Recover the amino acids of this structure.
């Protein structure tokens, strides 16, 4: 399997979560199994937000300065949800598809009325913008920025159950994007995937010390990969379970752990 001359943000985060998971996915090239409902909902909202912000920033669009209206935003989000689910249907999808579509509709309504109304891209090229940069680690960094606003803020969209974004200066992805773009202020536009969904917007200026720390962390990741070091997630980690790891059934630290004889 030929290796690219870059490392992506998602690869770095996967390695930091679990070296074994990185190994199966990117060294061995094993394909991920079917998606989860939460992943489908997150991608649906993300793709719909992209379309909304492009139209809102396009001075030649009828939707300039407004973007998609609420009903169109919701309809597109549900349509995106169905398309993504059809491409990668989760296990037992028929038992949860209606509930997942309903959640997507609610999340879309909430996103449009909060982040979608408040934020505006600085131009159409600043939506889902690809970045590829040499930060001195021997490989280019590849990533995709959800949005750079007209107020010069790097924004990342998230749909997650837990709000873990207390200090954005510790968020590898946002610090890296800030460093590459030389835009000091970053933000999270979060929709919490909970019983009563919440919209959370948090913004923060990244200090210089965070750039140094993240650069060193990424350098350590690349050195680890190049040296063939693929440690499993820490003992007791919630990531190391059949519910969260796609490679649980083949990993020697997963389902196979403790067996005298492996299949």
């Amino acid at each position: 399997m030929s290796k690219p001359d870059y490392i992506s943000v998602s690869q770095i985060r996967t390695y930091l979560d679990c070296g074994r998971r990185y190994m199966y996915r990117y060294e061995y090239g094993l394909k991920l199994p079917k998606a989860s409902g939460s992943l489908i909902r997150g991608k649906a909202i993300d793709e719909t937000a992209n379309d909304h912000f492009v139209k809102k920033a396009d001075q030649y669009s009828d939707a300039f300065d407004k973007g998609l209206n609420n009903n169109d935003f919701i309809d597109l989000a549900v349509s995106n949800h169905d398309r993504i689910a059809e491409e990668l249907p989760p296990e037992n999808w028929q038992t949860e598809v209606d509930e997942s579509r309903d959640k997507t509709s609610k999340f879309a309504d909430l996103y449009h009325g909060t982040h979608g109304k408040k934020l505006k891209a600085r131009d159409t090229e600043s939506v889902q913008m690809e970045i590829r940069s040499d930060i001195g680690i021997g490989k280019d960094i590849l990533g995709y920025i959800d949005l750079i606003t007209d107020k010069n803020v790097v924004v990342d969209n998230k749909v997650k159950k837990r709000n873990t974004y207390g200090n954005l200066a510790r968020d590898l992805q946002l610090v890296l994007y800030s460093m590459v773009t030389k835009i000091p202020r970053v933000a999270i536009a979060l929709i919490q995937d909970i019983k009563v969904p919440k919209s959370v917007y948090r913004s923060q200026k990244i200090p210089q010390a965070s750039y140094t720390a993240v650069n060193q962390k990424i350098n350590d990741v690349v050195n680890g990969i190049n040296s063939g070091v693929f440690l499993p997630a820490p003992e007791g980690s919630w990531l190391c379970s059949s519910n969260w790891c796609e490679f649980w059934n083949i990993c020697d630290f997963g389902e196979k752990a403790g067996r005298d004889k492996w299949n």
About this structure: The first helix runs from residue 9 to 17. The chain has a mean pLDDT of 92.
